């Protein structure tokens, strides 16, 4: 059945939305067809806000206390979401109706509102947690709009027009939930190491534009996507990952779904680099879920500082909703410092933070992260041997035995940095350029497995064989490739840009005052900027991301703030927004790849370079 290019399912949805009136559904279909045939402008219509939201009536006003309390209204829900309803209220509404509708709620939330898939309105909020919740109740992350089939993922990218409206976390979330990158033309993210042309990839580059799932990429859409991707190199980076990494098997997804751990499968999108470490971690955890054992799961995270060990542990806890306890081993001198004295010795009644965390999570899954594990003394490591083997621990406060067999322990160490640095340098071609083919990925994986074995051998010498024998997986954290370095720079540029947009607050109290803000920072040639920040000593492999953070602060953050202050006699709230453009010098070969910060000033848009930064550029970098 076809109605103006509507599929049968789309036509049925239109009928349902229009009270089964064929004439009204036909008019809606005509409007829908006209919009999508000529190309959509990537703007959503406004939906009426329900009375409950307008009047500020408490949450039971959603209909819980009347005869119609079980009637689900997708249009009211979307209207409330567009009107600014809180994430907590929306989740409460969905949870309530899921109790009554069960699996049929998924069909409802995948319906249409004003001829658009409801999920598009959810993505418009830029709230990644709301998107995750919507998908959790059955929302289809691969839904498309109209006869040109605009992917939800493309719409999410298009919304990223500035740091204040950044959608990078949204794009990562959609990909982690299974959104397909197939509908995005490859030229937007391959090759990765370049800036996109201002109007988007050329016709010659868009070799796949005739594919049925890419018909949406009109000249207007192309420019919108390009503007967003040139502002966020990280989005191009994760699209590239999604296109090149192997898909998770259906059986693994089935195991993860049973244990409510499906979010774990997309953990690599929330890191920069460390694809192999993430892959090995997920494999081991899925295997453990498929065949549980009554003993803790022990991992060794080995790698230089600033390369994602702590970030991976935090994301692991967040994505599968496990409590995480972190211990800084540099301050641990004895086993008493780690666990506390045993009863009846003085101080045993309080217990250490780690002791109390273990007891509170008896019989439950949780994560313990021991940072700089190489700083621990032998008596501390000896104390861990029996619990690591048996899965039982004795509460130091009352000597009661507790079950911590379901716990995950991560031993993070820098002890093997020299081995990792040498290995990465020796095999950099294979390790850092491995996404082009399955063969390249397999070669890289074999190399990392070899490195893992080398670390295991060194671990026996460093921590003794009994401790090494209890560690289930030795995960090497590699140094960053050039594109990964650029992605790290983009991440911290984005953080600075978002902070800069926050409003000013004038106060006599230094703790509450905010004397820099209301500033819009934009990028010109985003990849080149990020590459320049990481190059020429910006990235130091011994320091990792911290070195790039310093480069962003030195070459962008400080010049912007200093110029902001130098151009004002007084800081006042409510003034016009300040504007800065960050680019790279293009006028002189001797300053190639130099970062240029320019301030946009005046109503006519005239601008100039910030003093001391890129003077040779003449200031044209900021014209946008």
TrEMBL record:
Residues 295-433 form the AAA+ ATPase domain. Keywords: ATP-binding, Hydrolase, Nucleotide-binding. SUPFAM superfamilies: P-loop containing nucleoside triphosphate hydrolases. GO terms for cellular component: cytoplasm. Residues 599-624 are annotated as: Disordered. Coiled coil: none annotated. One of its GO terms (biological process) is cellular response to heat. One of its GO terms (molecular function) is ATP binding. Transmembrane segments: none annotated. It holds the Pfam family AAA_2. This is P-loop containing nucleoside triphosphate hydrolase protein.
